[in-house]
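Q: How would the structure tokens look for this protein?
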Amino acid sequence: MSGLFSRILRLGKSEAHSVVDKFEDPIKMTEQGIRELKKDMEESMRSLAQVKGIVIRMRNDAENKKKLAGDYESKAMALLQKAKQGSLDMAEAERLATEILARKEDVGQEALRLSKEVTSQDNMANQLQRNVDKLRTTVQRYENDLVTLRARAKTATATKKLNAQIARVDSDGTIAMLEKMRSKVEEDESLATAYGEIANSGQSIDDQINKALSGGSSMPEASDSLAALKAKMNIN
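A: Here is the predicted structure in token form.
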């Protein structure tokens, strides 16, 4: 049972180190930051779309109220015109016109309220738009930084690996090995020369004569020396 608890403890420590390493990894941290920014941007864009939808509806309602107010005024004028022409009782026309003008006042006030609300909501939409644009720019900058960071990380890893390999090379041992090889080569060359001298010193007279004859260049010199010697001794 104690062995099982030890294994669980080691596993927990391993996972904890993994989490720490993950959070200390700048690439993973940047990726996480970008994901969070994109999530914020998506939420801001949804809010922006909702506010813009409200602004559009309110603006349409305000325009419709203004149009309705104008229609009410036209109807009131038409009633008074009919009463003036005698086709409608003036008292009835005035009563209806008064009722219509009251409605015109109501829809006019509603149109004014909606216009003010449109201005407020429009300002909010503009602020949200600026936030979305800022988040979009920030995400783009971070994504560009992430590309650069990944490239630098790969270069750093490769350089670290190469430097580690170079560090493991025993330069002193390599130089000592080269010196030892140079000494061995020089020793072999000296022995080869010595064996050559020994071989030459062991030649017989016949070998020397044959060598002289085969060389070709030494015979004229030998003949000249012999002729000079005979002349000196007065020998024909």
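The mean pLDDT is 79.

DSSP finds six helices and no strands in the chain.

Upvote if useful.
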